[in-house]
Specification:
single chain, 227 residues, two-stranded antiparallel ribbon, two-stranded antiparallel sheet, 12% strand, globular
Length: 227
């Protein structure tokens, strides 16, 4: 890795650790708006902490979803709000936020999809993988925030039910999208989600992400640390 890349990774690590350091010192960190970070994909992957994964105690119900979404007054839950945000042809919204019509693009398998019921909303980093990677230590409220995260577009993505269920709870060392042109985007979005939420990677996962990064030169990862 070039010296500039090493320096960028080190600076990022310091930035992400500031709240922890403030807490350890006994002085609460001053509230501040989260600042988006943009890094070359190789540097971003190198900034991910490495840890052994542990699924002990995991239950899907530990992550409450789908909740009332970002706009509770709209009558749509998180799933429906993501579908509305990602529609390439906007659907009609009926009583109870029933969606009819509409068209979506599932980038995992490069398919145009309609109706809304044919889509799953995929957690880019699956709930079980998040648990393994650090979310087991979170409060229930933070796990709910993670499971319904619309603060970063990469966190939740509308894809065909078939591709989502093929992926299940696997990380990139175990599963990648079948569409070759999806690979760089998927590597970016996986890395961005883990950095946003301070989640670790295991060694095989890190190695696969580095392989992806090597083939995606000139690609940046943008993420905003979660509140």
């Amino acid at each position: 890795m070039k010296r500039s890349a090493v320096a960028a990774a080190a600076a990022l690590a310091v930035t992400l650790s500031l709240p922890v350091a403030a807490q350890a010192s006994g002085h609460p960190a001053a509230p501040a708006a989260a600042v988006p970070q943009v890094l070359p994909i190789g540097v971003a992957v190198s900034a991910l902490p490495i840890a052994v994964e542990d699924r002990t105690g995991y239950q899907r119900t530990s992550f409450r979803h789908w909740n009332a979404g970002d706009v509770p007054a709209d009558g749509c839950n998180t799933r429906a709000e993501v579908l509305l945000a990602e529609a390439i042809v906007y659907p009609e919204i009926g009583p109870g936020c029933t969606l009819t019509g509409g068209v979506w693009w599932s980038y995992y398998d490069e398919r145009e999809v309609t109706p809304a019921g044919a889509l799953d909303i995929d957690h880019m980093v699956p709930l079980a993988e998040a648990w393994d990677s650090g979310a087991s230590a979170w409060t229930p409220a933070r796990r709910e925030a993670y499971a319904n995260d619309q603060g970063q577009q990469a966190s939740l993505v509308a894809v065909t039910a078939r591709s989502n269920r093929s992926k299940a709870d696997q990380d990139p060392a175990e599963w990648l999208p079948p569409a070759p042109d999806a690979l760089c985007r998927y590597g970016v979005e996986w890395t961005a989600t883990k950095l946003r939420w301070g989640l670790a990677v295991d060694e095989m996962e890190r190695d696969r992400l580095q392989d992806i990064a090597a083939g995606c030169g000139g690609t940046d990862v943008e993420f905003t640390p979660a509140p």
